[in-house]
Amino acid sequence: MLSQKAKYALKALLYLAEQEENTISRTVEIAEGANIPKKFLEQILLDLKRKHIVSSKQGKFGGYYLLKSKNDITLAEIHRMFDGAIALLPCASPNFYEPCSDCKTEVSCQLRHGLVIVRNETLKAMEAISIASLLKK
User: Fold this and answer.
1) 57 phi and psi angles, rounded to 5 deg
2) Taken in order 67, 68, 73, 78, is the CA torsion positive or negative?
3) What share of the chain is helix, strand, coil (3-state, %, to 5)?
4) Helix 110-128 crosses helix 75-83 at what angle (to 10 degrees)?
């Protein structure tokens, strides 16, 4: 399930992507436009800035803008950033892998084999959905 923080991050990115190119949006404008609590939004924007997805300009006319192209920001990237693994179990995740303590061997674990397939298909779908493609819907 997508966390509220990841959902708000996506809503903020959609808001920024809807603006004309090179437009700088103040935090209060993003909060109101995307219906996100301002205090929560500030932390999310800082997280996105650390990952070089957005950038900011300081000062009276400062605010945030997309640094990365809206075509290159995917659901998978934002999910991993805020919620971690896409896999349903740690043993099915290549990026957040941990062995299960209750399995005899991973090779013989039928559940793991099924969840690796689910993870791969979910990842493929999430990587195919960009912020730009969501705006077209």
Assistant:
1) -125, 130
2) negative
3) 55, 10, 40
4) 120
**Residue whose entry in the numeric block shows the structure tokens 């400062």:** 62
Residue with tokens 């969840």: 115
Query: CATH classification of 4-66 is 1.10.10.10, yes or no?
Result: yes
Please report, for the chain, the start and end positions of each structural domain, with discontinuous segments joined by +: 4-66, 84-136
pLDDT in tens, 66-109: 999 999 999 999 999 999 999 998 888 888 888 888 877 777 78
* Sequence-ordered list of residues with C-beta below 8 angstroms from that of 99, at least 6 positions apart, any chain: 90, 91, 106
> Are the CB atoms for 23 and 64 separated by under 8 Å?
no
CA 38 to chain centre: 19
Q: What is the pTM of this model?
A: 0.89
How far, in Å, CA of 137 to CA of 133, rounded? Answer: 7
**Closest C-alpha among 22, 130, 21, 133 to residue 78:** 130
Question: What distance in Å separates the CA atoms of residue 85 and residue 3, rounded to the nearest whole number?
Answer: 12
